Amino acid sequence: MRRKKRTAFVADRALAARQALRRLTARYDNVPPDKAEVIVALGGDGFMLQTLHRFMGHELPIFGMNRGTVGFLMNRYDEEDLETRIAAAETHTLRPLHMRSVDLRGRVRNALAINEVSLLRESRQAAKIRVTIDAVVRMEELVCDGVLLATPSGSTAYNLSAHGPIIPVGSNILALTPISAFRPRNWRGALLPSSAKIRFDILQHKKRPVSAVADSTEVRDVIRVDIIQERVRAVQIMFDPEHNLEERILSEQFEH
């Protein structure tokens, strides 16, 4: 018989999540996060990202149940047999992107992104961005509303909305996707190995200001952004076996 894992419940501020928290903690043992072996997150995908960032480096797997609007990273909500579900869940290790940005004043900011790093224009002027991959300039000038670099787990989020490709988990590939590219007009992006070192230089940065966003961390008025995949820090996310992350990503490609 499997031993029950010490569980900590955390919830979004939304009413549905708070109500679920009260019901679940009345039914199951709830320990502080620093005493837990697994975290149960109640909310939507946004809250799951917050929770993954919060516990990054703690080596705690996180099992999400959807009490929000979007639930791609969440399991279905069900109060029955939760301990059995957690014991049977499949665990996926996700390695975030490490963004190092330099702004107009020379200030350096580091941030991690589990889904994507996005560069976005700040004004009515289109951005002009030079794209360098592994010290080789691949695009001298990309004129666009922005550009993003997505992980496999993030490929179904903003990347998909920007018409980027969906990437299978475990493929060791990143998606480089333009956002409303004006020139080159027909460029649709590129698939890069996860070992790639990506640099974005913002051209005419005073006239055409750009912000960089790593998940929910925004840096304004950047002039350069370097991105690599993190090799040390990682997060663990749990899914029911019948609806694991690979299946979700595969299914997403056949939905209309």
The CATH superfamily of the largest domain is identified as Probable inorganic polyphosphate/atp-NAD kinase, domain 2
Helix and strand sequence:
EHEHEHEEEEEEEHEEEEEEEH
Strand elements, count: 17
Structural class: alpha+beta
**Overall average pLDDT:** 92
- Return the domain count: 2
How many whole angstroms does the radius of gyration measure? Answer: 20 Å
Count of DSSP-assigned helices = 5
The stretches of 5 or more residues where confidence is low (pLDDT under 50) are none
**How do the strands line up in the largest sheet?**
6-5-16-13-8-9
Top-tier CATH class of the largest domain = Mainly Beta
Strand content bin: 35-45%
In short:
This protein is of the alpha+beta class and 256 residues long. The chain contains five helices and 17 strands.
Describe the structure.
There is one protein chain. The chain is built from 5 helices and 17 strands. It is an alpha+beta fold and 256 residues long. The chain folds into 2 domains: 7-94 and 234-252, Rossmann fold (3-Layer(aba) Sandwich), CATH 3.40.50.10330; 97-229, Probable inorganic polyphosphate/atp-NAD kinase, domain 2 (Tumour Suppressor Smad4), CATH 2.60.200.30. The strands form 3 sheets. A 6-stranded antiparallel beta sheet has the order 6-5-16-13-8-9, with no helix packed on it. Strands 12-11-10-7-14-15 form a 6-stranded antiparallel beta sheet, with no helix packed on it. β8 (127-133) and β9 form a beta hairpin. The longest helix has 13 residues, at 15-27. The termini are far apart. The mean pLDDT is 92.
